[in-house]
Amino acid sequence: MSSFQHRILKMGLNLSSTLFPTKDINLTLLRETTEIISLVALLPWGVKSSKFKIGQMEAEIIKPVSTTEKRKALLYLHGGGFAIGSNQTHRHMVGKIVKDTSTEALLINYRKIPNHACPAPIEDAYEAYQFLLKEGYQENEIIVAGDSAGGGLVCTLFFMLKEKGDQLPKAGICLSPWLDLMHTGETVEDNKYTDPFVKIDEMKRWAEVYAGAKPLDDPYVSPLYGDFTDFPPMLIQTSKNEVLHDDSVRLKKALEDKGIEVTYQEWDDLIHWWQLFWRFIPESDEALIKVSSYIHQQFK
Question: In terms of C-beta distances under 8 Å and separation of at least 24 residues, what long-range contacts does 53-56 make, across chains too?
């Protein structure tokens, strides 16, 4: 059973979903509401940030106030169904990882639906990766991480790097990734009433918009159908209670079938996006400690 704090959070989300059904909320309003709520999630002590632009794309660097650690970077790709989320919604979580690992993290506000379909977010992730290389980081000094849709972007970025003949980074981290936009996993149905953060009917609509002119099984849309040959080591975190749980299970198998080193971490009875609540939920803090431990291991 999950912690008391997690059960309280889940009850609150279920009540919110009943009072304000996602399907009745304008996407712009949903996006702006998410941004406003995230304003209370401040960066932890010991890190600082600076905001700037990479071309036309908003970006943010979060780094320790002081460090003697060797040079290393984290490119973080936020989740939100390619529709919501931003640097603002995830900077507090990334800030904790930065503090615990002495990395320098780059966050980007990649382009989103409904104005920008696939492959726009992948191209933005690629541009961010190139920015780190131009800043002097070597590929083996970079880890790419993301949650939900951002976890899928980790994989599609690696596909694009392979297609262009570029070297892949040191490792990848996928937190509850959204990988199958055809939604063929069994947990899509089995968990649709127990995971209040993921409204599957809404996700299916967003998937169609994100795919644009591409079929839903195109690997750039649904990375689960791609070729994982030559991927770097990967960390996957998931909960059995999530609608997207089967995406993580199938990613693990696909990577192992290609001989890729996989670190797979699974919890019980947790909602999607639980890692965001690390200040309040014990399981969230535990998950981010494991992420930081993995980063330390990869950068030894």
Answer: 54/108, 54/127, 54/128, 54/131, 55/127
